[in-house]
Amino acid sequence: ILVTWTKGFKCSSVEGKDVVSMLRKSIKKRGDFDIDIVAVVNDTVGTMMTCGYDDHNCEVGLIVGTGTNACYMEEMRHIDLVEGDEGRMCINMEWGAFGDDGVLNDIRTEFDREIDMGSLNPGKQLFEKMISGMYMGELVRLILVKMAKEGLLFGGKLTPDLLTTGHFETRYVSAIEKEKEGLQKAHEILTKLGLEPSHEDCVATHRICQIVSTRSANLCGATLAAVLRRIKENKGVDRLRSTVGVDGSVYKKHPHFARRLHKTVRKLLPDCEIRFVRSEDGSGKGAAMVTAVAYRLAAQHKARQKILEALKLSHEQLLEVKQRMRIEMEKGLGKETHAEATVKMLPTYVCSTPDGTEKGDFLALDLGGTNFRVLLVRVRNGMRRGVEMHNKIYSIPVEIMQGTGEELFDHIVHCISDFLEYMGMKGVSLPLGFTFSFPCQQNNLDEGILLKWTKGFKATGCEGEDVVNLLKEAIHRREEFDLDVVAVVNDTVGTMMTCGYEDPYCEVGLIVGTGSNACYMEEMRNVELVEGEEGRMCVNMEWGAFGDNGCLDDIRTEFDLAVDELSLNPGKQRFEKMISGMYLGEIVRNILMDFTKRGLLFRGRISERLKTRGIFETKFLSQIESDCLALLQVRSILQHLGLESTCDDSIIVKEVCTVVARRAAQLCGAGMAAVVDKIRENRGLDFLKVTVGVDGTLYKLHPHFSTIMRETVKQLSPKCEVTFLQSEDGSGKGAALITAVACRIREAGQ
């Protein structure tokens, strides 16, 4: 938008308007060609860009010609007029107006004031009037006139030419200051102005030209030094290496101006190495450079979008995933098809959620990873209904995780003993619930056959055994106390039960953390692996294995294949690998690698760190996608990964994280939609109101995961009203509640 015309232009109705749209309009009016206008550039910026093409250190542009101006690369965080605090932006200083507020009054002379009074814009561009080519010759003329009037030159004689504004041109100053023929030139020029100069007059004129042009170069150098000092402070370096791109007739044609300017800058900045590069055709070539950069960015953007397209799922694709999940669920439930089903739909023998009448003291064990917890859970009913918990965390050393089964269970019992002593309950026999978060085949609530160890456990003699028996045997070996092991529970079921205690509508459990899984209350008549038709039973879906038979191959990308291939269990848990926390960071890393190899990121430079598997932790995704601080966080995370990133790089990384996490949340939502619709159809309802108990770090910590997942379920299952309830301590408390429910039912039976 043109602020004001200068340099003699005065066309009406252009000021205050966007010159690009005016140019576009004129092109359109002609109608015989079409041009895409990509950039509007000030000539100073053009100069910087032109020189920057040849010298990548160039971050300042300077023009000293008819007018003067400068531009430089400023940190975004200091530019309050523009949103965002990442990266840098070129600032057009418009420094000709320096001093218009009076700060230079102490160094302005009577000659400067006289020039200003006689100019087209009095009081404006005062700095420019002291240094630029438009006024340099005029300054010399005014000094000559004053000296002649005082009888110090030309024998006190004045001529009409000498008294005419603009008759002593700036190119005369350059000519007079030339080494060899300077004095001869002075004689010629003064004679042309109608004077009869003596040798002394010529020497004095030469000296005046020298003083005026030196002041100009010094002032220019001083202000440039201020700009360079700022860049140095912004970068926080001890020694700045930088390049200034320069254009303009005074700088290029005056015999000594450039040298004097350089000298001043070096004197004022002894701790900087500054190089000056003359721009050849700055303004034209520079505009083309800015355009070329903009075009490169646009082309790269297009290439990246094309790659990310494969990770963006349409509504139709998500519906398809939902339908396929439903087919796999049916296979897992069916007696005939169960053996080859990938989604195993394991019966849990949990047949009822809490009704609020449960009471008593229960012990719970929670084994699901490297830490192991023992809990005492007091369940109260009636007026003081609630759950009170005490727990202690014990670690499981690697040598025990990978030793023998006896050692592992002896260690667990040792921890229980320590806990009972700590609680002062050594002699009490309590009902116990065991959260055991590994794939188990249950034949009863208190019997769980370990199918296979996961999560780094390798204890021998456990696979194919009943973990409840292994625990009971270890208790008997210790001969200190007796516990009634009532239930063995998967963490997903525990989560459902914990939320079920708060909300009677809760009939689904979901975990989205390191891994992912779901469970829900299925009609007994559909659970063909268990005898009986009446009532319901919670089914542990083990849905992470959805897709292991190839049914998701059409939406898996090259990046999913790469992550799967290098994982500990290639070809297994394919659905989990697209949605859970353990793998999302790895998918992102693979995409960033691909972008970098194609030169679309990090200037095509791959660091050794980026090649390392598992360095891009999933918690980074949560941090990168949070709030407005994001770009700064992205930058520090990338630095931590040994990646030097620009502002644009940070934005791209953030976009990749968003796309990957969004897909994960949508896939999770599609799976959940299949579950709630099955419950609705099981019950022959037009509309179902149901609550899902959720746990897991990804769901809890990621800023957008839960929102996107909820939206997806809503879109894919419009006939269900689904509420998601975050579980507080699902696995431990849940095991105790299942035990409490089992005890309640057992007592009622007795």
Q: What class do helices, strands and sheet pairing give?
A: alpha/beta
| Basic shape | elongated
- What are the low-pLDDT stretches, counting only 5+ consecutive residues below 50? none
CATH-defined topology of the largest domain? Hexokinase, domain 1
CATH C-level category of the largest domain? Alpha Beta
Catalytic activity: D-glucose + ATP = D-glucose 6-phosphate + ADP + H(+); D-fructose + ATP = D-fructose 6-phosphate + ADP + H(+); a D-hexose + ATP = a D-hexose 6-phosphate + ADP + H(+)
Subunit structure: Monomer. Interacts with TIGAR; the interaction increases hexokinase activity in a hypoxia- and HIF1A-dependent manner.
GO molecular function: ATP binding; D-glucose binding; fructokinase activity; glucokinase activity
Keywords: Acetylation, Allosteric enzyme, ATP-binding, Cytoplasm, Glycolysis, Kinase, Membrane, Mitochondrion, Mitochondrion outer membrane, Nucleotide-binding, Repeat, Transferase
